[in-house]
């Protein structure tokens, strides 16, 4: 039987899984809102669907696996808003369903450790919307759902080097602030490992082994480039957008033991040092 992934919101993280599955003769149907992005999907071997807009019934009928990368829209999940009954009616058809969430569901832990059993106490509206979306997907009977809580994502095109080079990078310092992060390639590896060994109901944190203050990452990027380390700016004095400032409302270290012990994943980039070195090597 042909294995077919229907990927809603087929963007940056989903593309990391695409790179693994397409060489294994999977069919991938990916939704996008943009005609230009649809053309790019088709050029890579993904069947594009402009959605919302397209009738998704034929794609749902073909799908053996679902991936949901769309973020909540006005507090609710856009895929379930449009297609919950259709998905629920086919729950037994799918071998695997993956929902990409965020470690923001855990809220602020003052730099302490969290794992998948930590109570969900989100500190932001985005985090609360993700908690609601997770619960809505979990409520569909018989759906082989797997939730992946992603830390801060970086990778090709999403590294700190451009801002360091053009002088706009800032080392914003907030006492005790620490973030976990993940290279996008490791997201793809975790998703592929889960598809190989489904465990419906499972929740996985996806992050590296090295939670660190954000100013340290900027400093290391500057060192790799041989450029001056940007001056430190205290958080209370920094000019930031409300969105940027909201990221500093939460400080925590995220444990990733489950992706290793249950899925057998060996991270390509277990810390930001190895990840940034690889990014720079790719650029060069």
TrEMBL record:
Swiss-Prot/TrEMBL keywords: NAD
Domain of life: Bacteria
InterPro entries reported in the protein's UniProt record: NAD(P)-bd_dom_sf
Listed PANTHER family: EPIMERASE-RELATED
Identification of the protein by name: Nucleoside-diphosphate-sugar epimerase
Lineage: Bacteria, Pseudomonadati, Pseudomonadota, Alphaproteobacteria, Rhodobacterales
